[in-house]
Structures are given as structure tokens and as C-alpha cells.
Design a protein that fits this description.
281 residues, alpha/beta, two-stranded antiparallel ribbon, 12 helices, 40% helix, binds uracil
Length: 281
């Protein structure tokens, strides 16, 4: 078996074992499965960027010198407009670069602005590169995130990490946050008034970071950032345009954990992220 493919499969097996699957051996794979895996694993997957690919100023990932899977012109995002009620329409015009993430965190304080504060252990502000080119926005912290104070560190987080890694990025190069910063009781969907109270902080974080792309993970993030209520599986993979910033809705990793066959949707969209980042600014 090809060495790179073998390594890739070994990584996936390790991932599935971490996620609680029983033991699986590479030898158990039928030739047909190997072929399928070979066809679907993107060529960038095996090549995490060498140190030289990390821009020391922006401290962010730059495309490895590999042929893109499609010419940039073919992946140029369609410029669909967000709906009324989108995060940016409602946002106060905080000039980018005037704040720091630390100042926003300080302003948030020991937040008691909504009912979610009553049940939380820890505020999950966000994590990652303050100059990231991509910001991932999820729904809200779960039990693991609430315990650790960090976004996407549970099972969904492991899958998110895996996807980030698959397309040749590193978690520390991106920024990860949520539409609400406190765990909703029983992991229920955050309610509109909770999102309304919390989202000004999200807007300020995004404006301060100034990413090229916001990736909305799941319906609540899409509703909040884009103001779009259409089903996530219908609009995922389509780029939206906020002027300088683009937004890409995709399915939530937790949805993929519940529906493993849908993993290909997440992969496709993560490939779009990487193709977009390779395209000229
Ligand atoms: N799901 C989310 O939406 N966010 C997290 O931080 C973790 C799980």
C-alpha cells in the first residue's frame, strides 16, 4: 500500500479509536475499501505545512506548494448576500484593529447578561490565532468545553481538529468560538435572546481578528452570522459575502458524529476553505 495512504488510514483509525470505535487493523481493510479511501483522501491531507509555510507576521498558514485540486477561478466564491438580521447588519461599527481580544474578554468579565450564566462552570470565550484567516463559529459550549473553558475540545472538537488537519491546516492557526459563550443547559440550542445578548462579543472578536473567512458550523451559527434560516444541508458549501469577509456554512461536526455517512459534506467544505485561502486576495 502507498506509504502516504497508509499513514492517512492509520491516522483515521487512531481517530476512530479515540472516538470509541473498537480495534480495527489496516490488514482488515478489503481492497475495495482501500480504493475508495484512496479516491476520497485529498492530496493536501498528508502534508501538514512545513515551518517555512507559516507566515511569521500573521502567524498563519499559507498554501503548501502543491497543485490545488481545482484552479482558483473555479472555486472563487459566489457572492451571495446575507439576509436581513445577519450578525454584521446588526453590528455596531467597531473599527477593525481598534480593540484586542484581551480587551473584549475583559469587557465580558464574569458575564451575567443572560440566563445561561446561571448554569455554566466556565465562560468559553474562544481560542486560537488572533490574526487567523479563518474563524470557525460553532453553537455553544458542551460539557467538556464548559469544564475546560475552551471551545471544541470534546468529541465534536476532535472531529473538527481532524478536518482542520486533513486539509493541511493546524488548529493553532485558526480561531474557534461559538455564538454563545456559556453552556446551554442539557446542551439545548441557544435561544434567540441569549444569542442576541452574546453575539455583540462575537462580532467584536471577528472584527478584531479580521479573517478572510468565517466558517459557520451548523444551523445556529448560520442563523446568527448570516441571518439565514434555510436548512443547513441546503445551503452548506455556498460562500456568502460580507464585503471583505466571506462566510461559508457547513454542517456541525456533532451532526456528522450522529450521521457518519455525512462526513463527506464536511470534507468537501473544508476543501473549499483551503481552496479559498489559496485563491488570490
Ligand atoms: N459544539 C459547539 O458548537 N461548540 C463547542 O465548543 C463544542 C461543541
Amino acid at each position: 500500500m502507498d506509504k502516504q495512504l497508509r499513514e492517512e488510514l492509520a491516522n483515521w483509525l487512531e481517530f476512530f479509536q479515540e472516538m470509541g470505535a473498537g480495534s480495527i487493523n489496516l490488514q482488515d481493510l478489503e481492497p475495495a475499501s482501500r480504493l475508495e479511501a484512496n479516491q476520497t483522501v485529498p492530496s493536501v491531507a498528508q502534508a501538514p505545512p512545513p515551518a517555512a509555510d507559516v507566515n511569521p507576521v500573521r502567524k498563519t498558514w499559507e498554501a503548501p506548494k502543491i497543485q490545488p485540486s481545482a484552479p482558483a477561478a473555479q472555486v472563487a466564491p459566489r457572492a451571495l448576500a446575507p439576509q436581513p438580521g445577519s450578525l454584521f447588519e446588526a453590528a455596531p461599527a467597531t473599527p477593525r484593529g481598534k480593540e484586542t481580544l484581551e480587551a473584549i474578554r475583559e469587557d465580558l468579565g464574569d458575564c451575567r447578561r443572560c440566563r445561561l450564566s446561571a448554569g455554566r462552570k466556565t465562560i468559553v470565550f474562544g481560542q486560537g490565532n488572533p490574526h487567523a484567516e479563518v474563524v470557525f463559529v460553532g453553537e455553544g459550549p458542551g460539557a467538556d468545553e464548559d469544564a475546560q473553558g475552551l471551545p471544541f475540545v470534546g468529541r465534536a472538537g476532535k472531529l473538527l481538529n481532524r478536518m482542520i488537519q486533513l486539509v493541511g491546516m493546524k488548529r493553532e492557526e485558526v480561531y474557534i468560538c461559538n455564538v454563545v459563550k456559556c453552556r446551554p443547559p442539557g446542551n439545548r440550542t441557544p435561544q434567540p435572546d441569549e444569542i442576541e445578548t452574546c453575539s455583540p462579543f462575537l462580532v467584536r472578536q471577528i472584527q478584531t481578528i479580521g479573517p478572510r473567512l468565517i466558517c459557520c458550523l451548523g444551523a445556529p451559527a448560520v442563523r446568527t452570522v448570516l441571518g439565514i434560516k434555510t436548512g443547513i444541508t441546503k445551503i452548506r458549501g455556498t460562500f456568502y459575502d460580507f464585503g471583505e469577509i466571506k462566510a461559508l456554512p457547513t454542517v456541525h461536526p456533532a451532526y456528522v458524529l450522529r450521521n457518519p455517512r455525512e462526513e463527506k459534506l464536511l470534507r468537501e467544505d473544508f476543501q473549499k476553505i483551503v481552496d479559498f485561502l489559496r485563491s488570490p486576495q
